[in-house]
Fold these 4 entries.
Entry 1:
Amino acid sequence: MALSALLLAGVANAATIKIATVSPLSGSLTPMGSEVKRGAELAVQEQAGAFKALGYDLVLAPYDDQASATLAPQIAKSVLADKSVLGVVGALNSSVSNVVAQAFAPARLTMISPASTNDQLTQNAWTHFNRVVAPDAAQGVAAAGYIADELKAASVFVISDNTAYGNGLTRALLDNLKKHKVPVAAYAGASTAAQIAEVVKRVKASGADMVYFGGTDDTGSQLVKALRAAGVTATFMGGDGLDSPSFLQRAGIAGAGVVYSTVFGPVSAFSNALDFNDRYQAAYKTKPSGVALYAYDATNALLAAIKAAATGNRALPTRAQVSAAVRKVNLPACFTADKSRCATITGAVAFSDTGERLNSRVLIMRFDDVLQPQVAKVQTVSAESLK
């Protein structure tokens, strides 16, 4: 009885640290949102033992935002109310990240997004918001250069899906197309079936030899299918919202030839991702996309910060302490030849004073005729160059 009482006391004294994920776990963006949760989940599972040794129970708390900025305030309220949540991995969508980041600011609850690329997110003087992906400005630079120098487009019809992400991506592209003196046929927003039907007519009438789409894969797949069904053969290019297995599942053969810039890229593009890929497939019976890799790295960066801020002795560090520690994280690049398991898959992780990753990369990808993604170009972007 005495031994049982001691064991129970030990369990009771263990403090719980929660890592929250905020991403769509229902709705049309579930495939990508689930990648965020799963990537974070693997990192939490791997580090649970180390935290246990420090006197903490490490727990993942997933929140479903349904990719809705309207639902984001309630999500943020729920996360803030749970005092054991010391950090957030997410959100997926820039519009959601904007809302929850504003809500988290007074409490300095840190968040590291594995996917939100809207430029404004790191221009608000927030000390608690960070991301491990390159912003829209970096994609705009890379995409415009490729359109001008490699595709040599005569005219580009630019379309946004009317989200914060899509608007930010297309604005960045427009600015850079202007620098390259590439003519823009028109700019339009399209997210509903009726709007897509209307914009397809406008694209066809414009004669543009290039269509650029800023938005997510659910709308992008509908748009490219509608364009091809209408006989429009213009090259179709998008941003990292198209970098998802669900894009091809939805677009089918219409995805052949589609070009996209991405801050993610295929798992095969990372030389040290083989072990992660095997663990992911063993756990979830499916292959990961780049989103899962970035979520994994974001979570490991957050956990490193919590360890640095923790005193042990089962006392929880404050949210402000964790937030400050995130900006001091410096995880080195790791390779499979290393004896220990890699804490990073996408390269070294460290953050600027605005929350941008110090060095990130943008890939230009193209789906070939059998719908296999091929790397066309790789570009490294520093946070300093984006100022």
Entry 2:
Amino acid sequence: MVLKTFGWSFAITALGLVAAVLYGGWEAFGIVAILCVLEISLSFDNAVVNAGILQKMNAFWQKIFLTIGVLIAVFGMRLVFPVVIVAISAKIGPIEAVDLALNDADRYQELVTDAHPSIAAFGGMFLLMIFLDFIFEDRDIQWLRWIERPLAKLGKVDMLSVCIALIVLLVSAMTFATHAHQHGGTHVDKAQTVLISGIAGLITYLVVGGLSGYFENKLEEEEEREHEAEEAAKRSGKKVTAVQLAGKAAFFMFLYLEVLDASFSFDGVIGAFAVTNDIVLMALGLGVGAMYVRSLTVYLVRQGTLDDYVYLEHGAHYAIGALAVLLLVTIQYEIPEVITGSIGVILIAWSFWSSVRRNKRIAAAGGGSGSDEKTEVPSGV
């Protein structure tokens, strides 16, 4: 079962790691391995969401999402998008960006270094919004309750996450401007670049989130209409065909999933810039990681168990928050790639371990494996 589901992912992992060694030696091997783990970790909740929605779709639309959808995710978002980011930030053509990355690494590195403040500000704001919207949401299952409970209460204030993100951006820009001024003021204009790029990242998140919400609402409306049609048909003795039940609702599911997948792809791609600026290593690591998202989605659909490790989603979002902070810090200070890559892995491992402990407590108490946190521990932990 595991080999059948993850076979292609295992094969592509081996090819990707070999290619990394041939390209840049064992250091490149380590970076690609970190990016693989990072992408898988950040996308685990994406696979869970995908699986939950795919279960409602018929076989045709499942195949569409797992073929065309994967092509868009792997080649569009993970391979093309990093090149586009570098091209736009450095104001060069995509082909030139690829050519420089392959044939003139020093010049490419210089362009990426010059463009890094805008990349870091854009990515930092996008990732920070993902984290803030998650942490301010009131949810039944809480991992670090001493943090999440009070923040969930604060989250009832409208637009709080946007306000905090803008304050963080303003402080980052002012700090960078002060730093530049102390060095002669030759790069004061970079403060404006940080502000503009950060606002662009914020707008991108709001647009993607708005589209996701729109498709989700349309999906719910279509499901409600088709449910009513099914009930009316049953009362009148008519037969409701599977094609009718899989029509518009399935189409909106597909669109919704593509928007969601794109939004989750952003965090992986942007987070990768905190680990490396080399688009070849980035493409290898994120491409391999994206294949595991597909395999995880298929595995979760076939197994039908999505709630075994309930804290993994929390760990992934805390990793996103950490990456957001690190990206903003790298506007002014250089941070070793090992640190940026390891923090996410540690948080995911911690959340997995917490999930396993939770499951053992529930089993010991005879509570089954349900996802209701209130049945887990009588006293707040």
Entry 3:
Amino acid sequence: MANQPRPVVLRGGTVLTVDAAHTVLPGHDVLVAGETIAAIGPGLAVPDGTVEIDATGGIVMPGMIDTHRHMWQTAMRGYGADWTLTQYFVWNYLEWGKVFRPEDVHAGNLLSALEALDAGVTTTVDWSHGLQSPEHADAAVDALVSVPGRFVLAYGNIQDAPANWTASPGFRDFVSRRFPGGRGDEMLGFQLAFDVTGDPAFPEKPAFEVARELGVPVTTHAGVWGATGDDGIRLMHEHGFMTPETVYVHAASLSPDSYHRIAATGGSVSVSTESEQSAGQGYPPTWALRAYGIPVSLSMDTSVWWSADLFSAMRATLGADRSREHMEAHAKGDTVTHSSLRAAQVVEWATRGGARALGREDRLGSVEVGKLADLVLIRNEHSPVMFPLLHPHGHVAFQAQRGDVHTVLVNGRIVKTDHRLVGVDLASARHEVERTVEYLCAQLGEEAWEKGMNPDVPETKILDNPYTYTDYRSASTHERRQEAQ
């Protein structure tokens, strides 16, 4: 490939290979030549002109992979912090999502792509269900290709039925123009994104047939409380549309029968723990997925609520899984003395698990010679949190955060170093987002804008306390003092 970057060596770090054995290599170098990892070892000899990056005291790990992020919504960062899933559906699906223009999708995707790289997420699936027109889709892709990360466009349209938009001439024209090879390439892949409601008529069947015709995977929100459930899984299975490439998002409120069907057909689940905990799709399902042997990847869902980095996802996932284990044991009068889910497993879900879900495990997801050089160096000499480094997988899962991401490589190129993105015009991205926020605020009007951010708080009642003496509580302070004397 033309314009190959200079070789890069990360010197003396603790390397989390995330290979099958979860091998940890303290004090090792990682040499990158071209697009791939050329060598791993202590004190490597390197070619003249190699860029040397000191990784001493830091952790070198694979680039993280987010398998489900609604990037187009990122200009609304934090707006829905107090939403439930119902409020999210109403705002985006029924009311205001439809007013997003192509330039608003571009602004959200651009900001989301930049924040992904900044947090060490080198591959992101853009679960792009705001593509109301080919112009919206072109805007989404234009933003993604302007950022030096690895992305997958999962094309969707929540404003129309999957059978309709997948059959439209505009969609077909977009695919032929932007993804002439069908699945895209190493830097920009392609999927279809739509949900299955469980309607016995199976109206989504034509969309699955289009995906099969194009030879692209389907990613679908499954097991979302009150929206998608077991009937959708059954219909997919009975019609032969559950494949090893299918990614089921959330899968948090499914029956054992549905989990068996997913496991038997080789599919995987994208778990968005912070989303499931807060929005209400169901309890984060890793405890169930582990029992059924279903592969897991991690995702952040949307910046309308959450942080959009996988450090948060790993931390929340470990906490939710272990909490479930403790609660179930306590209900039986038992005590958990050894945790089943370990930090190394969750680090794998954030990296190799994502590669596996995307069918790229042979090229991405671990630090091994010959694999594509998507790498992250976690090192922060200005933070007291980076030492001592005793349990590397635990450090990544529980201690590190996006501010500790020192260097990021994608496809062998340095896209962030010394804690700063390389060659990025943040001012321009900020200006785009500001224009989108101004436009959306004007569309809603000030009152609706404020109301959207501040939904009603349900009334609550303090439980009656049987140990409270009514006459004591009603007595004056003076009377209580006299009684005390």
Entry 4:
Amino acid sequence: MNPPVKRAKVLVVDDDSVVLKAVTQILQREGHPVVAIDDAVEGLTAAKDPSIDVVVLDIKMPNLSGMDLLRGIKAERPDVEVIMMTAFATVETAVEAVKAGAYDYLTKPFENIDEVSMTVAKAAERKALKDRARALEEALTARSQFEDLIGQSTQMRSVFKLVETVSHSTATVLIQGESGTGKELVARAIHYRSSRKDKPFVAVNCSALTETLLESELFGHVKGSFTGATGNKKGLFEAADGGTIFLDEIGDVPPATQVRLLRVLQEGEVKRVGANESIKVDVRVIAATHVDLSRAKEQGKFREDLFYRLNVITIDLPPLRDRPEDVPLLAHHFLKLYAAKADKKVTGISPRAMEALTCNRWTGNVRELENVIERAVVLTGNDIIDVEDLPPGFQAAPQADSTVEVFSLAHLPYAQAKRLAMRAFERRYLSALLEKNNQNVSSAARAAGVDRSNFRRLLKQYEVAGRSMKPRTPKEDEGEAMEAAS
């Protein structure tokens, strides 16, 4: 079974007892816990309760006006969403309320009681998004000691612990993981937490250079040692003396260069290409690869002695698909980063979009997620990223074939996969039911065997409501009342 959906706790403040009772009943019918108060001063005290998510209040009240109450609430609880009610709505009133921090306002008498519940639902969702963003921000702050490594999963906590332990040694470290998992970030975290942090950190991609250029880059060369060597050059091992050198994609190093690397690790000295003398260096080596070096060793593609020299301490980085609980944290980090770069006020990610991000297999790992969020920030015209802002593959409806759908969730833990699969099924079921009943909510509710108010609640919960909900008519209200009485 899915966990119960938490309903927003709502404080309603109005000196008109009829309106107070009506709004309370509307919200309670939608499942919201409601605190109803008929005095503005008492309302200000009640709003300090940290469990209050949304406040609905009247503008015209004795002792303390609604606008003063709004300012008082925002001063005490800036995170609370406030909805104003007024029988004298004007543009000036609305502008003043919004400037003072109100989320929205309602005009009395209500033309459609659904407007009340829908406005509160939207305000509650906004509050929930802000709460989630704050929680993620706190989690991001907590991991600052590990530089740009981000994660709260069991796998990443193990990585953090290992980084903490090996940073204080001088042992060679081999980092293994798929492309895009953050191997260089781990290497940097180790270096900047070590006693070598004030010395150079030098990174080189071993797969990006030819054999001759790679040897020249790593070990340096003397004038005339090969065509184009017009002078002596210091290599990266010399440049990293006293610090750390990070050899990325060590599995792609040619056999001849592997021999020279072995000498550096064994003797602590390098010989420039074309030189006769060796130069002593004090360098910690951290290597990384996306290939299985143990298998490459068995296949004769990687030297066995070099493998054992590198494989003193191994850190295995899990692919992102194996730690889906880290996706929201990473997504929020990249959202904040690229919103600042683009100078856009994009503050959150909708539940539907986050669900789509969490379900994705992320073959490109963290790097792919970063690119997706950057794209969404650039393209969105709203302050919240939604599914429509994600690449086309994320917007496609789940396949009707249950085998395909289950396979797409097979990388997730059982409980999470079950929850997401159930949400996908329920959303498709509700959409299909509405379509079959010509978008008529009452007919769809009867077909589902669910009373209308609970059916409407399901539509909101699974975000089908925006397309399918129609204003209630007196005839529908009468029909629902008769149905409830029978």
